[in-house]
Amino acid sequence: MWNHVCMNFPDLQINGRAGGSRYLRLAEALAAAVACGDLPLGVRLPSERDLAARLGVSRTTVASAYREIESRGLVRGHVGRGTFVCAGPEGDEAPFAWRGKLARGALRSLDPTLGHLMSWASNPEVISFAAGVPALDRFPTELFAQLTAEILRTNPAAALGHGPSEGQPRLRAAIARRFGVPRERVLVLTGAQQGLDLVARCMLDPGDAVVMDRPGYLGAIQAFRAAGAHVVGWDVLRADMGELEDLLLRYRPKLIYTNPSFQNPTGRTLPLPERQELLALAARYRTAVIEDGTYEELYFTKPPPPPLYHLDRRGVVIHVGSFSKMLAPGLRLGWLVAAEAIVGQLALVKQRTDAQTANLGQLVVAELIGGGRLDEHVRLLRAEHARRLAAMEAELERALPQRSLSYIRPEGGMYLWCRLPARMLARDLLERAIGAGIAFVNGDAFYTEDGGSGELRLCFAGVPAETIRAGVRKLAAVWEPEMGATSRVAAGVAPVV
Amino acid sequence: MWNHVCMNFPDLQINGRAGGSRYLRLAEALAAAVACGDLPLGVRLPSERDLAARLGVSRTTVASAYREIESRGLVRGHVGRGTFVCAGPEGDEAPFAWRGKLARGALRSLDPTLGHLMSWASNPEVISFAAGVPALDRFPTELFAQLTAEILRTNPAAALGHGPSEGQPRLRAAIARRFGVPRERVLVLTGAQQGLDLVARCMLDPGDAVVMDRPGYLGAIQAFRAAGAHVVGWDVLRADMGELEDLLLRYRPKLIYTNPSFQNPTGRTLPLPERQELLALAARYRTAVIEDGTYEELYFTKPPPPPLYHLDRRGVVIHVGSFSKMLAPGLRLGWLVAAEAIVGQLALVKQRTDAQTANLGQLVVAELIGGGRLDEHVRLLRAEHARRLAAMEAELERALPQRSLSYIRPEGGMYLWCRLPARMLARDLLERAIGAGIAFVNGDAFYTEDGGSGELRLCFAGVPAETIRAGVRKLAAVWEPEMGATSRVAAGVAPVV
Questions:
Q1: pLDDT at A4
Q2: Scanning A206, A276, A468, B377, which has its CA 20 to 30 A from the CA of B130?
């Protein structure tokens, strides 16, 4: 959009009749040319020197006119590249176009995919395999309401007043005990996404490199891109440590981001030797690691290897956790664990970002942890999610044509990562699926570069087995007739084929 | 800290005995010099060329060594300025120093004052006139608990699942009806602070200017500074429109930030003619305006003039509102109202920042608004806060020496902005006050440049009248004996004298 050059620069009329100073008349003429489309979005204006020569005015006049239309948000100057039309005018009354007032950073990542996921998830007309939600129908709503009432009655000051940016002391202590760290290393968050955003804001300068899972979590890609980082993918299904070392050598990244247990979106778990090697590489290349531990407790039968944070003896890991999948995403609660030096910095950034996390939810969850009710609920989810996955697998095999869909069977987490037959595009299927009232995420949303057009992610955890069966049948109904059956690959053995 | 030059560059031993490549040996020598203090924090290293000549090695060796110690977080290169020591090593095992890995932006504003306010506010040993809290002891806790339970029972999906980044449709609709705008213009926030941070991230590039109230809200100063903005103060007590125009002409700011009703910290309300003039100036200089409306409903008897947002006919105002002062800060709920074009952009930034605001609080507050209970509560607060102000004024006159403290009597809001006698410093008084178990905010925290050392802010709304009296007596007890009595100036008439 920024690459066109203005080929036919319009004739500008800036003769004396319009009144006012010459630069303002030129600015009006330029604004009119933007308004009528003679200067369309994205074209580069002539240099100040060229336009001055062409119009027979001073270069100062042109510079002032350019500054004037920049203040109206119509053009934007880029040092060394020139001045470009960046917006049409907002309407007769508006003194400027909002779009033209946006920061460069805000223009970097405007992907609305996350927003779509959420709106499908909250639309009762759509069966959603899209957003990652646990079995919310099993949430202990009554207990939650009871604890809320109790806290408001017995400790209204803590519930209603200001609290520390680091989090409510009771919740920090409960998380610290459960995760096995001193409580000064815990920072309470409004969800794991906030953790990624805070780390990005705190550590990334524009141009810094980040190496992350490919495919990988969409919200991480967005947070790092927004900070101006160069995001480089590391093939998470191959999990080749030689490739990782090549990337560290070549890009010298500031951060490695990985989701090592029941990865989003592939469901893949990084084995213990690879975890140890990843940590050794991070230390050798002096790179910090963000470990996204969102799914690590949601195994079906066998726990994954220990978190990177606990394997690390050199203090390079920031561990991000979430209550969104163990309890409910609508609570907006998560945490991170890291060296005190960086927790303190992150808390300062959080302070000016949202001051603190809301108190009531923190205090209720601290009670749920302390009373052992969280662990109980997580055990329930493990069994329930395994049943839902079984229902989804069975229905996919029953409803879809033979050999038409391959997927990795995960041993935990919430996602089935699927590959479509050759020449079938996930975006096309999604369009038909949405029309039929069924949603999933097309694979390309998880790629930093090209890729994923023939892949898709199904969340099997959020809806009960019978709804899963209904959803899969709807999906089968919009399947193209020429396609073939479900084949599966055991997790960790090989990439989808 | 960045301005020292390394005067006595240490002798580095990089002879062959240490093994390894030459650049690594040089890097080790430099790291050792940092560790033992020979190269202290803040010094500039010699240029690559100079050090290469001095050591008789190639410039590439020095460049590689500098890059190596930069990856350890020990030094940081600044284009055109050189390479500076930015951290000591973190300990023997750590492969890098976290502080050296921080983004430039994160280093811009590390003021912990907001954090101190919050910790005093949540410390039961301290009577706090510091943080801005309303009469939380009058909060309808039972009703809130009832509504929470009801929503969890009747609509668990909305309470627990994902929701739109823009906010729960019911709360957006309730805010829109109450404020008199279409609901597409409303964005729900986790408090007004998030609104300021989102606007800063969305609109400000490093170097952009922002004109804001001086003295003005601390959290606004921090949000704009963190975005790299040049923050310029406009004297809010003089409210001189000529001065504002001069600032707009001189700095061409991207934003004007103002808190026009019962301003934080001065309590000042901008009269109607000045509001109209401010809007005309903003339109003339094509500058967006952020109006902080946090206190506008908390008048004692007479409402302030209409918000800038409603006076504006040209769409230049972003109005930020908060439930922190009308209900409770611990809920972390606020909103903003603006043109749809910018609301959409802000929602995209919010999406990658924290995905969405927690649902339960939103749904409960939507009920409080719809049922008229919010308005009822605000009426109660108006009367209660007026009584608390009266108690504070009376006790200040009684307990402090004659003519020792002057202040503006506000007609709403929550703050008494006070001036100390000449030569008395608010920071000194605060230190003694904290020792005696009483907190307030020293005035300089509200200034972008120098100023405020003899001023302080007392919040009169948060504690009951008898606690206010006890607190003022504690303050009087640490008052220096030589100081003289309380004199007051009616709001809007003149600055404190």
A1: 42
A2: B377
Q: What is the predicted pLDDT for the residue at A324?
A: 97
- Which residue has tokens 């027979």? A56
Contacts across the A-B interface (CB distance below 8 Å): 332
Q: Which residues in chain B are closer than 8 Å to A126, comparing Cβ atoms?
A: none
Does the distance separating the beta carbons of B227 and A286 come in below 8 Å? no
Contact residues for B409 (Cβ-Cβ < 8 A; gap 6+): B267, B389, B393, B416, B488, B489, B490, B491
pLDDT in the model for residue B496: 31
- For chain B, give the mean pLDDT: 89
10 Å Cβ neighbour count for A213? 28
Q: Does A339 touch chain B (CB under 8 A)?
A: yes
Judging by DSSP bridges, how do beta strands A230-235 and A209-214 pair with one another? parallel
Mean pLDDT value across residues B472-494: 63
ipTM confidence score:
0.87
Distance CA B392, CA B381 (A): 16
From B161, which residue of chain A is nearest by alpha-carbon distance?
Answer: A330
Q: Does B453 touch chain A (CB under 8 A)?
A: no
Label residue B101 by pLDDT band (50, 70, 90): confident
**Closest partner residue to A330 among B313, B314, B358, by Cβ?**
B358
DSSP string for residues in B279-332: HHHHHHTT-EEEEE-TTTT-BSSSPPSPPHHHH-SSS-EEEEEESTTTT-GGG-
Q: Distance between CA A332 and CA B189 in Å, rounded? A: 13
- Kindly determine whether residue A355 and residue B219, on different chains, have CB atoms separated by under 8 Å: yes
What tokens were used for B403? 């003519």
Q: Are A115 and B160 in contact (CB under 8 A)?
A: no
Per the structure block, which two tokens stand in for A261? 């247990």
Whether omega for the bond prior to residue B265 falls within 30 degrees of 0, making it cis, is yes
